Amino acid sequence: MKKLTKKDIKQEVFDLYDDYAHNKIDRRNFVNKLSLFAVGGITVPSLLSFLMPNYKDTLLVKQDDSSI
Fold first, then answer.
1. Exposure of 16 by Cβ count < 10 A (0-12 exposed, 13-18 middle, 19+ buried)?
2. Is 31 among the domain residues?
3. What is the Cα–Cα distance from 27 to 63, expressed in whole angstroms?
């Protein structure tokens, strides 16, 4: 399976994530609505992994930063 790109995902999915990120809808409602866009080989988990921030790999401050 190829890696998802922004072109593979409809704008409505990004709008839906925006509603979720700004607490306009809860997670359950977000995932339920997101499932409507899981078609043609695109799964809900793949959409979630594309949309959700990856905090673990996005380290902004090093552990040994002396300025902290």
1. buried
2. yes
3. 31
pLDDT digits (tens, 9 = 90+) for 33-57: 999 999 888 899 999 989 988 777 7
Instruction: Please report whether residue 20 resides in a domain.
Output: yes
13, exposed or middle or buried, with CB in 10 Å at 0-12, 13-18, 19+? Answer: buried
Instruction: Quote the DSSP letter at residue 56.
Output: T
Report the domain count for the chain.
Answer: 1
DSSP state of 26: -
Q: Is the pTM of this model over 0.70?
A: yes
CB-count exposure of residue 15 (10 Å: 0-12, 13-18, 19+):
exposed
